[in-house]
Amino acid sequence: MRALILCEGKTDAILISYLLCKVSGWKPAKADKKMSISVSEKNNESAYWYSRNDDRLLICGVGGKDNFTSFFSDKIYDIIRSYPQSETFDRVVMIHDKDDNTIKDVVSNIKNCLQPIAQNIINNEYKISRYAGYLN
How big is the CA angle at 33 (ends 71 and 27), to the nearest 5 degrees? Predict the structure, then answer.
C-alpha cells in the first residue's frame, strides 16, 4: 500500500507524523525516488515519507488552507498520471480545517482539488474510488 495524506501546513504534518509513529508503528523513511516531490519550506510546505513493513506513507503539508488545489495539481497529480495505478497512491486523505467555512464549502473545495482522480467524496466517510479517467 502507498498512501498520501495532505494537510494544511508543516505543523499539522509533524503532529500527524508523530501520532502515526507512536500509535501505529510508522518509521521515517527515505523518499520514494519515483514519487519524489520538491517542496518549499519558506512557503510552509513539507513532505515526509514513512514506512511500515511493505507499506509507504507520504504526509505533505501544502502551505496553507488555500493551497490544496495548487499543491495537488503542481506536485502530486503528475506523479499519479505518470505511473500505473499499482505504483502510485492507493489511498489519498485530505485533512482540512473548517475555519470560518461551512462543511459544504470545505467538501466542495476538496472535491475541486481531487476531481481529476476522485469523484466520490463525502465528509468524514471513507469511500473507495478508482482514479477517474486513469489512462495507464
Answer: 85
Could you write out the DSSP letters of every residue in 30-61?
PPPGGG-----GGGTEEEEEEEETTEEEEEEE
- pLDDT, tens only, 24-39: 999 999 987 878 888 9
CA dihedral 105, 70, 42, 80 (to 10 degrees): 120
Residues 115 and 27 sit within 8 Å (Cβ to Cβ) = no
| Residue 1 amino acid letter | M
Backbone angles phi, psi at 112, to 5 degrees: -60, -40
Q: CA 95 to CA 81: how far, in whole Å?
A: 23
Q: What is the pTM of this model?
A: 0.82
For 25-57, give one letter per residue: b (16+ CB within 10 A) or e: ebeeeeebeebebebeeeebbbbbbbeeeeebb
